[in-house]
Amino acid sequence: MKQSSRYLRASAAARRLSVSIKALRLYEQAGLIAPARTAAGWRVYGPEEMIRAADIVGLRRVGLSLAEIKSVFGTDAVGRERALATHQASLERRIRDMAAAVEKVRRLRTGLLRENATSVEIAGTGTPRATAAVSFSLPWPWGGERFDLGGISPLTYIIGPLGSGKTRFALKLAAALPGGAFLGLDRIAGDGAAAKTRLASDPDLQRRVQQTLERLGRDGASASPALLALIVALEAETPAYLVIDMVEQGLDQVTQEVVIAHLKRRAPGSRPLFLLTRSSSILDLNGAGPDEAIILCPANHSPPIYVCPCPGAPGYEAVATCLAPPHVRARTEGVIAWRP
């Protein structure tokens, strides 16, 4: 054949495709491509072969074998769609299996940390903090199914869309936990008047709160009655378990990010917290660590489930769709779900 600038030698074609010359030979041996030959017998790759080779490279990178690729190329559009759908389903099953394995490892790590810890005490009280599992019957809108809370993580997020029952779930959870309490949105009523009253009667708490607020302020948090009320509850020595409704309430985006970073930095053995949230600034799925757990209250009122923060894990997409940045969450400020 007469070679032109439109045809590439094997080395140039391999560089352009970011594969090896050996890979191109394997594609040829599998009958997937048929490069032309020069008069001297050198393989050369024209535009059509390069397009086809690029398709092969793309399919190989998503996990298809050469035999599967040959099957895809050897059928019509409907057949190709079915073959790719089958491969997608296989990948999704593998992702779910891997996510389940990651969650098991995370729980094993948490369990080992607890086994190696010495007796943990609530700061200033000398009272051992239990992390025993609890079990309780789910309230309406569920049908009384049992929910088992196993090993308790230092931070547990409770997520769910409007009307999912997550607040009722959180109230029931707080009642079931030994020494647990629920911190509702009334904490910011009257510009946090209850928190200010509590501070006035407890100098030690006032000192701890002031130190924490100064630290958060240096990190960029904005002072507000909502932040004060939250920090007062967090710095108090009791209860043993605290369930906080919409932890982001009244906080701007930077303050939310500073607060959650502060909570993640707490010392080992600190009081376990359960945080209701729908803010992606509070729960960053890409940054969730082994000491954090996620409980999802599904929109269809099936029982709450633990969700591993891994794309493809059961419930992951549902959690992701419940979360939004603060400026988006502000559009539904004050909206509540109610029973007709």
Number of helices: 12
Strand content: 5-15%
The end-to-end span amounts to: 79 Å
Number of domains: 2
- Gross CATH architecture of the largest domain: 3-Layer(aba) Sandwich
Poorly predicted spans: 117-132
CATH fold title of the largest domain: Rossmann fold
Strand order of the largest sheet: 7-8-9-6-10-11
Mean pLDDT: 86
What is the C-level CATH assignment of the largest domain? Alpha Beta
> Which descriptor suits the 3D outline?
elongated
Helix content: 40-55%
Radius of gyration, rounded? Answer: 28 Å
Structural class: alpha/beta
Instruction: Give a count of the beta strands, DSSP E runs of length 2 or more.
Output: 11
Q: Give the ordered list of helices and strands.
A: EHHEEHHHEEEHEHHHEHEEEHH
Overview in brief:
It is built from twelve helices and eleven strands. The chain has 340 residues and is of the alpha/beta class. The chain folds into two domains: 8-74, Orthogonal Bundle (Multidrug-efflux Transporter Regulator, Chain: A, Domain 2), CATH 1.10.1660.10; 96-332, Rossmann fold.
Tell me what you see in this structure:
The chain has 340 residues and is of the alpha/beta class. It folds into 2 domains: 8-74, Multidrug-efflux Transporter Regulator, Chain: A, Domain 2; 96-332, Rossmann fold (3-Layer(aba) Sandwich), CATH 3.40.50. The chain has helices at residues 10-17, 21-29, 47-61, 66-73, 77-116, 166-176, 193-200, 203-218, 225-235, 253-264, 316-322, 326-329; strands at 8-9, 36-37, 43-45, 134-137, 146-149, 155-159, 180-183, 241-244, 273-276, 292-296, 305-306. The strands form 3 sheets. A 6-stranded mixed sheet has the order 7-8-9-6-10-11. A 3-stranded antiparallel sheet has the order 1-3-2. Helix 4 (66-73) packs antiparallel against helix 5, helix 7 packs across helix 9 and helix 8 (203-218) crosses helix 9 (225-235). The N and C termini lie far apart (79 Å).
